[in-house]
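In practice, a research group might receive sequence data for several interacting partners and want a quick structural hypothesis before committing to experiments. The following worked case mirrors that situation: the sequences arrive first, and a predicted assembly follows.
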Amino acid sequence: MEVHRYEKIWIGISLLVIVGWIATVVFGAVGPGIAMVDDSGGQIADPSNPTESDAFRDPGVYQVGENEYEVYVLARQFAFQPGTSEPIRVPANSTVTFYVTSPDVTHGFEVVGTNVNTMVIPGQVAELTVEFDDPGRYGIVCNEYCGSAHHTMEGTIEVVEQDEVNGTEGDT
Amino acid sequence: MSVDSGGPAPDGVSRRSVLRRGAAASVALAGLGTGVASAQPYGGWFTDDAPGGATSNYDGTTVDRTCEDSITITVGADGNDGSFAYDPPAVRIDPGTEVVFDWASDTHNLVLKDGPDGGWSGYDEIQDAGFEHSHTFETEGVYKYYCEPHLTLGMKGAVAVGSDVPTVTPTPAPSGDGESDGDDGGGLVGPFFDGSSPIVSATLGFLTVSVGAVFAGELLGALDEWRAEARAAIEETDGEVVEAPETESARELDHDSFVPRGTWTLVLVYLLILATMWVFTYFVEFLGREPTVIG
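A structural hypothesis for the assembly, expressed as tokens:
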């Protein structure tokens, strides 16, 4: 079989594109340290009562170290708790690990405009670690259809200056 | 708008409400009314003209619980396509009656939409099943409240305090959310250009049918023409298939002297587009927007 010399060139280019794609994803994981959300958050024996499980605490913000926080969020029809009725407040320059689960149906947890995004499955805790550098406000939306008022389900994360954080949210 | 507060009708009827009422009446006369009534209980609070959805567990009656010391309203009772109802949704009590709000399901609160000055101010924090909030209503008037997470489902309630407090005021239902004040034009024009108006839908239906008929006629005509042509062609050749005449090639090339420059340019342009989109998608959109998931 004869292969035209131009065809040889663009077969080579397409192989390079595949190699380049894999290299980009490897760079993302090694360089900026992008991680995938996996099942490390653990499972909940009784999905409708997450707080009774060892894998989940009462919804709220907990300080677990210097500049390290854990946020437990319940996504339910049709609110994030905390997040919707009161914003999730974390300080700037902190590492925040979100633990999100649902006591009713499948929801989504997406910080708008970023790649912080996971599916929230009843009985499964989604665990995501995020670094917040600068003060600001982020929106949270549910991006999995969860019922008739799905479109109203949203919340807020407030990243505030270090000294503005008061000790009212959770304990250490 | 004090007119909507459920209190006694004000002495001076504003020009706007006269206009509105006039509009509503003419609409009703013309048989085009889309649910704009001139008097609805609680100013239309339980319909979807008010903020949120219609309250399906409200049957138009106010439960009379006067002459009682304490009553219970279930929060998150069955209704409104799930456990998204206040039961009873509308209730009348005497001043001094204690109302116990009893949470029967999760994620509900009591946000006051409007009520008399100095009265109950609602309970804004979202609570779960088993929680109770009680308040003794002293100030007479109509209190309208709703559940913030489930307002769109019609989870709304009302408490009328006092035997003489009217729940029906001669006020047209507010269009929109009542907070925007410049809805005069909308109130007058709305019903006629509303998609649910019979005239509009009849006109649309007529247009669809007539345009469809014209197109179908054209199509059938074209089909007939094509059939006649094909029949004529078959008759000409007595049904035999005629092949196209063979032509000589103008010049012959050997394999490698063929140079497809156009295709080559196209491949390079596609490659450039792909590389640009790759950079924007991964490095700008995905990596470039803080914060990002790191664990």
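Before designing any experiment, note the following. Residues 2-186 of chain B form a domain with the Immunoglobulin-like fold (CATH 2.60.40.420). The first helix of chain B runs from residue 15 to 29.
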